[in-house]
Amino acid sequence: xxxxxxxxxxxxxxxxxxxxxxxxxxxxxxxxxxxxxxxxxxxxxxxxxxxxxxxxxxxxxxxxxxxxxxxxxxxxxxxxxxxxxxxxxxxxxxxxxxxxxxxxxxxxxxxxxxxxxxxxxxxxxxxxxxxxxxxxxxxxxxxxxxxxxxxxxxxxx
Length: 157
Description:
The chain has one domain. It is 66% helix and 0% strand. The protein contains 5 helices and no strands.
């Protein structure tokens, strides 16, 4: 499914911890790019659904392309932020999918084995990512309140 919402949890967590170093647009766009691959493969009847894009090399490539596209669409973040967010988004996508899907080949072209797969991890992973999303949103909300409070104090002084 293009843009599995759970893949955004690491981006939201990074944005709450390092807001100046994290761009949500490049991180989110690489999630869509990467999830188009299994959607197309399934629609065309190609098995397994996760192909070469779901490898570290593929994640980096998708991250670079997504960063360039996101930077072209929105100049809100620097090239450094866009590239970092795109590549980390691609790599985190590969790692998360490798843990829950046995057909992912995270270390292709060096190996077609998936040593990261954990049988039975699908639902626990989704619950953990949902919890991470909630914590990240709380962190972003708290950060926004601190910034607003600081602005109000600056106006009073």
